[in-house]
Amino acid sequence: MNPSHTRLAFVMQLKPGFEAQYQQRHDELWPKLAQTLKAHGAHNYSIFLHPDTLQLFGYVEVESQARWQTIANTEVCQRWWSFMAELMEVNDDSSPQSTPLTDMFYLA
Description:
By secondary structure, the protein is an alpha+beta fold. The protein has helices at 19-27, 31-39, 65-69, 75-84, and strands at residues 6-13, 42-49, 55-62, 99-100. It has a four-stranded antiparallel β-sheet with strand order 2-3-1-4.
C-alpha cells in the first residue's frame, strides 16, 4: 500500500436472491465508472460477500477522503446507484446504506 493512501472499509447489505446479479453487474462494471473511481484517487477497491448474512464488505484505498466523497456527485455514480438500488439496501437518494468500519489492525 502507498503510505499516502488511506484505507477505508465499510459494510453494505445485499437483498436475498440477488447474489448472482450483483456479481454479474460488477463483472461488467461500466468503464466510465471505473475511470471515475480511479480519477478520484481510488485504488485496490474490493467488495466481498458474506454468504450467510449477505453482508457486503467493501475495502478501498484512497488518496484523499475528500476526493473520494466527491464521487457521489458524479453523474455516472448516481446512475450506478440507481442501477444497483433494486439489489441492495439503499438510502432515499439510492446510495447504498453503508456503515463505516473502524480500523483495528494492520500488518504491512
